[in-house]
Amino acid sequence: MISHVLPTYNRAPVAFERGEGAWAIATDGTRYLDLGAGIAVNVLGHANPELVAALTEQAGRIWHVSNLYQIPQQERLADLLVEKTFADTAFFTNSGTEAAELAIKMVRRYWHDAGQPDRIEILTFEGAFHGRSTGAIAAAGSEKMTAGFGPLMPGFRTLPWGDIEALKAAITDRTAAVLLEPIQGEGGIRPLPDADLREIRALCDQTGALLVLDEVQCGMGRTGRLFAHEYAGITPDIMMVAKGIGGGFPLGAVLATEKAAKPMIAGTHGSTYGGNPLACAVGSRVMEIVADDAFLAEVNRKSALFRQKLEGLVAAHPQVFEGVRGQGLMLGLKCRVAPADLVKAGYARQILTVPAADNTLRLLPPLNISDEDIAEAVSRLDKAAADLNA
Ligand SMILES: Cc1ncc(COP(=O)(O)O)c(C=O)c1O
């Protein structure tokens, strides 16, 4: 008989009832060191007092009003995002997938209003992940996600990841947009070199194609900059944000330049919940904390510490690990074993990690993880790797 919860996930046999910083406490009292952070979501850890205060203060006033009215909390968050990024405007969603949907619609509408309604081709890359809606799976194009769900939304062409020559051959003045994650998350913590991102920006400028970045996983301080593309010194036309921006509260956003967003006039898009007072009260507090230079400097310092220890771990277990990759606290351990086996071995050592494609184990701790917890994490990973070897 089918379970009451639709069984689309292979869940681990553990449930958590409480959290404190980088620790998640299971119903039987066992404390797990959480290096998954709800898949790169809990940027400030569990039960962060400042976020709890922001949420409860708002919860005692008003939760939801709909976008039929002014929402000061939403305006505040939009102001913060516009101030700190390339963007001129923001639309709030409840998830990364919804951000992908709007980004795609924005691209189409842009060319429609520019008098080129058949300019719809969006170039994407193998290994990408943009969500699970019909549009987002068509954009990613992987058989694993699309099988059985056709016919797929047309207008996407998938190129080999990071293959600039393939992009040069594919992009023309008929291309609508190029869509990519500066660091692929689900694809296995695969960063695109800064020089390649600059070249992609230049190719978009030459052809007029819009550059759409998906920073749902790599954004919001995860890489040690507020957004990953900042390392390359370029800006996109449209960007998808989610996960970390809500610190655990469902929230996403599409950020855009005025030029790209201009055709999205009243009536062209909407959401009942998107940008509601509760979500935006939390999102603004997250932004105030994470977008601070001193906070981001700490992320980079911790990243260096973590990386150094992980290099030692890789050297100690050459049969299990191949290397470390990623940026900031978006780190991946390329494995010689199945990452799912390591995740399982981690449960036995009370550490939570997340597998990814390309045989990679993802380490996505809260961005405010302590140095002691980083050391503890590496010690537990060391034991888990030894258990696998034994
Ligand atoms: C890069 C990227 N884009 C989009 C999404 C989809 O976001 P959500 O699961 O919030 O819909 C994800 C989720 O993992 C992601 O990593």
Would you spell out the secondary-structure blueprint of this structure?
Layout: E1 16-20, E2 23-26, E3 31-34, H1 37-40, H2 49-59, H3 72-84, E4 89-93, H4 96-113, E5 121-125, H5 134-140, H6 143-146, E6 156-159, H7 164-170, E7 175-180, E8 183-184, E9 190-191, H8 194-207, E10 210-214, E11 238-241, E12 252-256, H9 258-261, H10 277-290, H11 293-316, E13 321-327, E14 330-335, H12 339-348, E15 351-352, E16 354-356, E17 360-363, H13 371-389
Parallel strand pairs: 3-15, 5-6, 5-7, 7-10, 10-11
Antiparallel strand pairs: 1-2, 2-3, 4-12, 8-9, 11-12, 13-14, 14-17, 16-17
Helix pairs in contact: 2-10, 3-10, 11-13, 12-13
Keywords summarizing the entry:
Aspartate Aminotransferase, domain 1, 2 domains, Acetylornithine aminotransferase, arginine biosynthesis, 13 helices, 390 residues, binds pyridoxal-5'-phosphate, PyrdxlP-dep_Trfase, pyridoxal phosphate, alpha/beta, 7-stranded mixed sheet, 4-stranded mixed sheet, Aspartate Aminotransferase, domain 2, globular, 19% strand
Protein model, in words:
It is a single chain. The protein has 390 residues and is α/β, with parallel strands linked by helices. The protein folds into two domains: 33-45 and 294-389, Aspartate Aminotransferase, domain 1; 51-290, Aspartate Aminotransferase, domain 2, CATH 3.40.640. The chain is built from 13 helices and 17 strands. The chain has helices at residues 37-40, 49-59, 72-84, 96-113, 134-140, 143-146, 164-170, 194-207, 258-261, 277-290, 293-316, 339-348, 371-389; strands spanning 16-20, 23-26, 31-34, 89-93, 121-125, 156-159, 175-180, 183-184, 190-191, 210-214, 238-241, 252-256, 321-327, 330-335, 351-352, 354-356, 360-363. It has a seven-stranded mixed sheet, sandwiched between helices. A hairpin with a 5-residue loop joins β8 and β9. α3 packs parallel to α10, α11 (293-316) runs parallel beside α13 and α12 (339-348) crosses α13. The two termini are 38 Å apart. The structure holds pyridoxal-5'-phosphate. Its cofactor is pyridoxal 5'-phosphate. One of its GO terms (cellular component) is cytoplasm. Keywords: Amino-acid biosynthesis, Aminotransferase, Arginine biosynthesis, Cytoplasm, Pyridoxal phosphate, Transferase. N(2)-acetyl-L-ornithine binds at residues 132, 271. Belongs to the class-III pyridoxal-phosphate-dependent aminotransferase family. ArgD subfamily.
